[in-house]
Amino acid sequence: MTSKRYKKLPTETKKLPSALIEKIIPELKKNCTTKFDESIDLSLQINNKQKKNEINLRTFVNLPSGSGKKIMVAVVCEDSKAQLAKDSGADIVGGDDFIEKIKAGELNFKKLICTPSMMIKLSKLGKVLGPKGLMPNPKLGTVTDDLKKAISDAKLGQVEIKNDKDGNIGLSLGKKSFSDDKVVKNFTAVLEVLEREKGNQTVKGDLIKSAFLTSTMGVSYKLKLPKNI
After folding, report:
1. What is the edge-to-edge ordering of all strands in the sheet holding 39-46?
2. Global pTM value
3. Residue 107: which CATH number?
4. Strand partners for 10
5. Strands 73-76 vs 111-114: parallel, antiparallel or unpaired
């Protein structure tokens, strides 16, 4: 059943002409009428000129304005590096004992970082961590000896950019409480990563076919993207 709140929102916004994000954000925020701080979410669709299996985006973006979310960060490392991880802000730190807890299904964290020497042991838990998108990956900066930087990036708002089998990409650009400028800065950072990744793909024309901006409980608006994305 559609709520009274939702019935008051604009209808058929997807049929409106695409517009720059600076124009859309104020309109979108007007529709954030729930009592909680809604997320502002970006949805992208890869150009349908590509075969679905030809595009395989998996990278990350460090959001300059942060994500607005509290990220529980866990670290698997040697005992000698445990104190460094804790001092750097990790919420959970452990070695072999922690790996056993993960194996048993204890996944009370949002980001998992691992040192290279411990990755051999952790890699055996692919069936546990893989489906949840929690398996550390060197390309994502989550398999590293530089724990301080990895933990800091994760806490400040490092977000994965990954397309699904149908070519969809979804991520949050922040919260309703963010200033418009902070949301735009995060959006710009995402575009910069996509432009860079476009060069690593076999692309005919533009990489992104369409883009929409919405809030957690709101309606979506069509975004106008630069021609080189």
Report:
1. 168-175, 39-46, 208-215, 221-222
2. 0.85
3. 3.40.50.790
4. none
5. parallel
| 87 & 142 share domain | yes
Q: Are strands 168-175 and 73-76 parallel, antiparallel or unpaired?
A: unpaired
Dump pLDDT digits (tens) for 186-213.
999 999 999 988 877 777 778 899 999 9
d(CA 182, CA 13): 24
Q: CA 55 → CA 118, 166, 187, distances in Å? A: 31, 10, 21
Q: If we measure between CA atoms, which residue out of 168, 170, 215, 161 comes closest to residue 192?
A: 161
Residue range(s) defining the domain that contains residue 100: 73-155
- Are 151 and 164 found together in one domain? no
Only one residue has tokens 């866990």, namely 74
Give yes or no: residues 77 and 122 share one domain.
Answer: yes
Residue showing tokens 């670290």: 75
Residues in the chain where the model's pLDDT stays below 70: 1-12, 48-54
Among the three residues 139, 155, 171, which one is the final residue of a domain in this structure? 155
Which residues are registered as beta bridge partners of 159? 61
> Which residues touch 190 (CB under 8 Å, ≥6 apart)?
42, 61, 161, 171, 173
